[in-house]
């Protein structure tokens, strides 16, 4: 299965989904850059999420808050004290490792040198520090946010007053978060800088169980209906009491079956009224409780790629939902050296380009061009040939069935639209 991961990583690099960060300088461990196809996939995911959970709902509004926040936020939220992982160092090779990962995954042997002696555990805070202004002293320390959630809590009053929402209602945000992970890795699974899509859904305390169930069902529907992830490839796992974060009374993880094991994709937590209480907001009377569905963008991309990846005979195909695919359609003139075909194909290309991300390919034989689009998940390929010049029909080839049919240029835009 590790093999499948290597194939996906290499496809991502070769086709422009994901590149190693700072590659020409030898890289920077666990940083990755999204290429021109990766950014389309990522944007498609974020837009679908925003539409489903903000635009289409009357009870959720969006914000976009700053990454740098007053350090008092992190003191109040408990992150300065509590947002840490247990760190140990291998006495032989000095690798720094997470004690819990060492126990669970490596049988207490160093994964680098197989050493069995480690320093005592100490708590390592995962927040990245930086300095505000020209003086690098303790007074000017600020942190890069480790979650977007606090931006929603500190703006609770502003949002409630301006949007005039009454309980229950939610605040949503998509944005970067940063964690100085001790053992990052597995491609874009655990990285230092990632994106989150989070909702803080404010409620009356006594409704928490039913609202929790509602969001659990919504998250499940998002995975299956919007992303097309197969039901058998993820599970919902209840957190044990000992696993719960400092603010949570109940948490479930949505775990995806990645090629390297079943691991967290999303989380759903009942955060009580811990955060709003901690920030001492001047609310008249009742302090709302909160249910938090949280979705990692990068882990979504990884799960979607793993789920869509297939090897079928000679071809590799990404069976992405058409809504997620970077290109919706590709246009091919049958022969690149026949100006009348190229001209006609350009007309079709321009027609489609208005509505969809459209690829152009005029190199090599048609079979190779199909395979090339299969590998990046383009649902439809259109070929313009000599018959097109006579009757304005083109060959439409379907990625999943590899079937070809002849359709009229006049209906092609509607055809693709219907599939989105
Ligand atoms: P883990 O147990 O894997 O460290 P977590 O429980 O700390 O994750 P949360 O604090 O619940 O994660 O973060 C919310 C979401 O943000 C996660 O469900 C995941 O999708 C994403 N996420 C968290 N940490 C990372 C990371 N280092 N790289 C990529 N995505 C991340």
From TrEMBL:
<dbReference type="GO" id="GO:1990742">
    <property type="term" value="C:microvesicle"/>
</dbReference>
<dbReference type="GO" id="GO:0070062">
    <property type="term" value="C:extracellular exosome"/>
</dbReference>
<feature type="binding site">
    <location>
        <begin position="296"/>
        <end position="299"/>
    </location>
    <ligand>
        <name>ATP</name>
    </ligand>
</feature>
<keyword id="KW-0648">Protein biosynthesis</keyword>
<dbReference type="InterPro" id="IPR027031">
    <property type="entry name" value="Gly-tRNA_synthase/POLG2"/>
</dbReference>
<dbReference type="InterPro" id="IPR036621">
    <property type="entry name" value="Anticodon-bd_dom_sf"/>
</dbReference>
<keyword id="KW-0547">Nucleotide-binding</keyword>
<dbReference type="GO" id="GO:0004081">
    <property type="term" value="F:bis(5'-nucleosyl)-tetraphosphatase (asymmetrical) activity"/>
</dbReference>
<dbReference type="GO" id="GO:0005524">
    <property type="term" value="F:ATP binding"/>
</dbReference>
<dbReference type="Pfam" id="PF00587">
    <property type="entry name" value="tRNA-synt_2b"/>
</dbReference>
<feature type="binding site">
    <location>
        <position position="98"/>
    </location>
    <ligand>
        <name>substrate</name>
    </ligand>
</feature>
<comment type="subunit">
    <text>Homodimer.</text>
</comment>
<dbReference type="GO" id="GO:0004820">
    <property type="term" value="F:glycine-tRNA ligase activity"/>
</dbReference>
<feature type="binding site">
    <location>
        <begin position="194"/>
        <end position="198"/>
    </location>
    <ligand>
        <name>substrate</name>
    </ligand>
</feature>
<dbReference type="Pfam" id="PF03129">
    <property type="entry name" value="HGTP_anticodon"/>
</dbReference>
<feature type="binding site">
    <location>
        <begin position="292"/>
        <end position="296"/>
    </location>
    <ligand>
        <name>substrate</name>
    </ligand>
</feature>
<dbReference type="GO" id="GO:0015966">
    <property type="term" value="P:diadenosine tetraphosphate biosynthetic process"/>
</dbReference>
<feature type="domain" description="Aminoacyl-transfer RNA synthetases class-II family profile">
    <location>
        <begin position="3"/>
        <end position="322"/>
    </location>
</feature>
<comment type="similarity">
    <text>Belongs to the class-II aminoacyl-tRNA synthetase family.</text>
</comment>
<keyword id="KW-0067">ATP-binding</keyword>
<dbReference type="InterPro" id="IPR022961">
    <property type="entry name" value="Gly_tRNA_ligase_bac"/>
</dbReference>
<dbReference type="InterPro" id="IPR002314">
    <property type="entry name" value="aa-tRNA-synt_IIb"/>
</dbReference>
<dbReference type="InterPro" id="IPR006195">
    <property type="entry name" value="aa-tRNA-synth_II"/>
</dbReference>
<dbReference type="GO" id="GO:0005737">
    <property type="term" value="C:cytoplasm"/>
</dbReference>
<dbReference type="GO" id="GO:0006426">
    <property type="term" value="P:glycyl-tRNA aminoacylation"/>
</dbReference>
<keyword id="KW-0030">Aminoacyl-tRNA synthetase</keyword>
<keyword id="KW-0963">Cytoplasm</keyword>
<dbReference type="InterPro" id="IPR004154">
    <property type="entry name" value="Anticodon-bd"/>
</dbReference>
<keyword id="KW-0436">Ligase</keyword>
<feature type="binding site">
    <location>
        <begin position="179"/>
        <end position="181"/>
    </location>
    <ligand>
        <name>ATP</name>
    </ligand>
</feature>
<dbReference type="InterPro" id="IPR045864">
    <property type="entry name" value="aa-tRNA-synth_II/BPL/LPL"/>
</dbReference>
<feature type="binding site">
    <location>
        <position position="147"/>
    </location>
    <ligand>
        <name>substrate</name>
    </ligand>
</feature>
<dbReference type="InterPro" id="IPR002315">
    <property type="entry name" value="tRNA-synt_gly"/>
</dbReference>
<dbReference type="InterPro" id="IPR033731">
    <property type="entry name" value="GlyRS-like_core"/>
</dbReference>
<feature type="binding site">
    <location>
        <begin position="264"/>
        <end position="265"/>
    </location>
    <ligand>
        <name>ATP</name>
    </ligand>
</feature>
<feature type="binding site">
    <location>
        <begin position="189"/>
        <end position="194"/>
    </location>
    <ligand>
        <name>ATP</name>
    </ligand>
</feature>
<comment type="function">
    <text>Catalyzes the attachment of glycine to tRNA(Gly).</text>
</comment>
<protein>
    <recommendedName>
        <fullName>Glycine--tRNA ligase</fullName>
        <ecNumber>6.1.1.14</ecNumber>
    </recommendedName>
</protein>
């Amino acid at each position: 299965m590790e093999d499948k991961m290597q194939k996906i990583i290499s496809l991502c690099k070769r086709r422009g989904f994901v590149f190693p960060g700072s590659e020409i300088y030898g890289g920077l461990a666990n940083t990755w850059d999204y290429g021109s196809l990766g950014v389309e996939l990522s944007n498609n995911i974020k837009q679908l999420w925003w539409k489903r959970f903000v635009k289409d709902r009357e009870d959720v509004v969006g914000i976009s808050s700053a990454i740098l926040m007053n350090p008092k936020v992190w003191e109040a939220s408990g992150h300065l004290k509590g947002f840490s992982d247990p760190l140990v160092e291998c006495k032989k090779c000095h690798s720094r490792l997470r004690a819990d990962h060492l126990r669970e995954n490596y049988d207490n042997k160093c994964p680098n040198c197989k050493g069995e002696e480690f320093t005592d555990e100490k708590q390592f805070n995962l927040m990245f520090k930086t300095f505000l202004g020209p003086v690098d002293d303790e007074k000017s320390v600020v942190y890069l946010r480790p979650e977007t959630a606090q931006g929603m809590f500190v703006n609770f009053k502003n949002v409630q007053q301006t949007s005039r929402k009454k309980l229950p209602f939610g605040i949503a945000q998509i944005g970067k978060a940063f964690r100085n992970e001790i053992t990052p890795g597995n491609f874009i699974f655990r990285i230092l800088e990632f994106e989150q899509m989070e909702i803080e859904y404010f409620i009356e305390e006594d409704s928490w169980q039913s609202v929790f169930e509602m969001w659990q069902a919504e998250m499940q529907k998002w995975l299956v209906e919007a992303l097309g992830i197969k039901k058998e490839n993820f599970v919902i796992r209840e957190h044990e009491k000992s696993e719960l974060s400092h603010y949570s009374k109940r948490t479930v993880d949505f775990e995806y079956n990645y090629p390297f094991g079943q691991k967290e994709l999303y989380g759903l937590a009942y955060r009580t009224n811990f955060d709003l209480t901690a920030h001492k907001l001047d609310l008249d009377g009742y302090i709302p409780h909160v249910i938090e569905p949280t979705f990692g963008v990068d882990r979504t991309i990884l799960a979607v790629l793993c789920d869509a990846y297939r090897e079928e005979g000679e071809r590799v195909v990404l069976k992405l939902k058409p809504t997620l695919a970077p290109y919706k359609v590709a246009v091919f003139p049958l022969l690149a050296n026949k100006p009348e075909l190229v001209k006609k194909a350009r007309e079709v290309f321009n027609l489609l380009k208005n509505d969809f991300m459209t690829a152009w390919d005029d190199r090599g034989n048609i079979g190779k061009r199909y395979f090339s689009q299969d590998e990046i998940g383009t649902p439809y390929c259109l070929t313009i040939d000599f018959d097109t010049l006579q009757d304005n029909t083109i060959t439409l080839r379907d990625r999943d069935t590899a079937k070809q049919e002849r359709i009229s240029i006049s209906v092609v835009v509607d055809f693709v639209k219907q599939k989105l």
